[in-house]
Amino acid sequence: MTTSLLSQNPSGVYPRDYIPAERVGDIKDMAGTILFLASRAGGYVNGNVLLTDGGRLSILPGTY
Amino acid sequence: MTSKSDLAAAAEHISQKSGYVNLVIANSGIQGPTLGGLSQDASLIEFRDYLQSWDVEEYNRTYAVNTTAVFSTLVAFLELLDKGNKAGNVEQQSQFIGIASAGAFNRVPMAGFAYAGSKAAVVHTMKQFATKLVPYGIRCNTIAPGRKSHRQIPCVKYTLAIFYLLTSLKSIPAT
Fold first, then answer.
1. Three-class SS string for B53-119?
2. Domains in chain B: ranges and CATH
3. pLDDT in tens, B104-131
4. A26: which residues sit within 8 A by CB, 6+ positions away?
5. Nearest by Cα to B113 from B11, B31, B2
6. What distance in Å separates the CA atoms of residue B117 and residue A30, rounded to the nearest whole number?
7. Which long-range contacts (CB under 8 A, 24 or more apart) does A27-30 make?
8. What is the model's pLDDT at position B36?
9. Contact A51/B147, CB-based, under 8 Å?
10. I need a labelling partner for B108 at 20 to 30 A (CA). Which of A2, B90, B129, B169 fits?
11. CB contact under 8 A, B106 and A33
12. Residues 2 through 41 of chain A touching chain B, CB cutoff 8 Å
């Protein structure tokens, strides 16, 4: 899906003024989020949107 | 995921195997037409012509996979999610998770207009279902990931692993 976008920056390092975390999200970021939601720890979460974007929507114009 | 009959077959397979689910994650997605081939200093006419060159079928397909298929997956698994609640094998209520994208909120079209629109639609559809499923005790949440180092297959494997883990657990210790 986003392979072609990623190939634009093979180094994987991004400037802080684009992605504050300075990297793209990886499978560990995704796994942790899913584990939280799937487990008892996230059992009180309903109707929520979990944004895991390394902070980029704090920098880029957005609607979140 | 775009085929209702395939989804029904998947639900039936799981129904035979475990009889219920506690969690369903709709993770598939495609990028759709992008602005990748357009130069930064394109004139308005170049910009217009570029957008006009996009294939309508490809544009609609983005919605079919990213939005409509998430809806169809939820519908196909509602009964199994209900049975998950009745099984009582985990403390938390059954849950559907739609995978959207940070692109749902980003005004800068990184992938394209169809991708962002289809993901924004997922966000709102999931919110509506969170409301609509309250009487049935099924939760609905959304994850909006930023651009990942794209590993679609391991990601799918991972979600499937959790899926099977949760469906196979008979009890969770109280502590």
1. CCCHHHHHHHHHHHHHHHHHHHHHHHHHHHHHHHHCCCCCCCEEEEECCHHHCECCCCCCHHHHHHH
2. 4-168 (3.40.50.720)
3. 999 999 889 999 999 999 999 999 999 9
4. B148, B149, B151
5. B31
6. 22
7. A27/B148, A27/B149, A27/B151, A27/B154, A27/B155, A27/B158, A29/B145, A29/B148, A30/B143, A30/B145, A30/B148, A30/B155, A30/B158
8. 92
9. no
10. B129
11. no
12. 2-6, 12, 19, 24-27, 29-31, 33-35, 37-40
Report the alpha-carbon distance of residue A16 to residue A24 in Å, rounded: 11
Q: Is the Cβ pair B105, A27 closer than 8 Å?
A: no
| Average pLDDT estimate for A16-31 | 93
Identify the CA nearest to B121 among candidates B60, B36, B79: B60
Whether the predicted interface score ipTM is above 0.90: no
| Rounded distance between C-alpha atoms, residue B1 and residue B10, angstroms | 10
For chain A, the domains span 3-58
Nearest to residue A43, comparing CAs of B137, B83, B122?
A: B137
Residue B5's closest CA among B80, B69, B62?
B69
Q: Does B140 touch chain A (CB under 8 A)?
A: yes
**C-alpha to C-alpha distance for B2 and B7, rounded to whole angstroms:** 8
| Cβ-contact B4, B16 below 8 angstroms | no
Q: What is the pTM of this model?
A: 0.86
